[in-house]
Amino acid sequence: MGGGGGGGGGGKSEKARRSSARVRLWVARASTVLLWTCLVQLAAYRELWAPSVLSRWPGCLNQPHVVQRPSERVADAGQTQAARALVVLPPKRIYRNNGYLMVSCNGGLNQMRAAICDMVTIARYLNVTLIVPELDKASFWADPSDFQDIFDVDYFIASLRDEVRILKQLPPRLKRRVEMGSLRSLPPVSWSDIGYYRRQILPLVKKYKVVHLNRTDARLANNGLPVEMQRLRCRVNYNALRFTPEIEDLGRRLVRALRRNGPFVVLHLRYEMDMLAFSGCTHGCSSMEAQELTKMRYAYPWWKEKVIDSDAKRKDGLCPLTPEETALVLQALGIDRGYQIYIAAGEIYGGQRRMAALTSAYPNVVRKETLLPWEVGLFQNHSSQMAALDYMVSLESDVFIPTYDGNMAKVVEGHRRYLGFRKTVLLDRRRIVELVDEYRNGTLRWTDFSSAVMASHTSRMGEPSRRQTVPDRPKEEDYFYANPHECLHQPEDVSAL
């Protein structure tokens, strides 16, 4: 009986030891979970406290945030960290989110680019979360490219995180609601200031949680906005909207190929079929071509102007210059015959026949398709990606000359101003066609024609200036993205220049 009693006491002792071990194990696990919970909370709220206790202590919580572009990631682990192109990101902005803003951009690449800048700025000042913008796939160009096919979407989101929260898609719950048709969608009023968005759009966001803005071109005013809003528009345009690594790499290769052969002029020769049909400008076209352009104009119901007097419009300076007129202007401006003339445009209407005068005057006419035919061919069926390549080359050219003041001409002009007022010849088309007609009918000698062209453009080279404002007529004002003077390093009194 004594042996049996000793065995029972040993069993109880063993059970007690096991129970104690289990308690210690659970305490250790609970302590670990609690510790990690605290660390996660500290990391989440660090930006609310900085600069305070956390920001003064060294350690992992204070390491800078970096983003690395896919093309800059080093596959070979043996390469040094210095070879990696890391970008330090700003801290996240903490704010109470009022809802979600979806936007659908319309038009070509540069029209959509300006709209994206506007929508980011609006989202920032409404304290809403912006969903990565949807790009136009139904316009004349029918480009299927999404945002991430043209722009570096991860950099776009990360580089603006101190201003606005941007997501690639809606949270699942809201996404399901939208897919079921629960969505408030509308086009905002053109040329509106931020007051309109606070009074009209913000209440809708708060009510519906998600608002979709369509047709977002020219929806934010050129003037009358706080300077910090104007500078945010510039920051988005000139920093956050980087093209994809593939586009940027090919753009740089195109510039290097041009530089190897000396100076080059980018000629934005806006003499494509869609522009001529839209504007109704048929000067120099055959009667059959004029009929074809008119037929195309009637085929697009949203091109509201149908009956157009081409001659009257040309004399008012409202037509893109023809290739023949452009050749005369380049010669009159003293552009060296040996310079490369890079054509930043789609297919020229009339082909080689219409280009003959220009190629005769300037034998070194090139296009991206002739410089790097195989590489550019990979982008061939994506007009916005092709336009992005032209945009990059245009920024780097010795001289940029647009023959029509469309969206690309204006946005590139503003970007070149931002980069240090690089020479951009802003052609006075009304004066040019007057001089060209006088020269062609023999009433003006070449020397007089050349002198008159030079004299009329001495102050139209993209030099510092203030935007012209036209109260109550915003469409007639100078475009913000052509001359964002609030963002430029220039004297206060530019009239003295």
TrEMBL record:
Protein name stated in the entry: O-fucosyltransferase family protein
Pfam families: O-FucT
Keyword set, alphabetical order: Carbohydrate metabolism, Fucose metabolism, Glycoprotein, Glycosyltransferase, Membrane, Signal-anchor, Transferase, Transmembrane, Transmembrane helix
Family: Belongs to the glycosyltransferase GT106 family.
GO cellular component, one term: membrane
Principal subcellular localisation of the protein: membrane
Pathway: Glycan metabolism
One GO BP: fucose metabolic process
Key word Membrane present: yes
Record bears the keyword Phosphoprotein: no
Domain of life: Eukaryota
Organism this protein belongs to: Zea mays (Maize)
UniProt topology in membrane: Single-pass type II membrane protein
Annotated compartments: Membrane
Molecular function terms from GO: glycosyltransferase activity
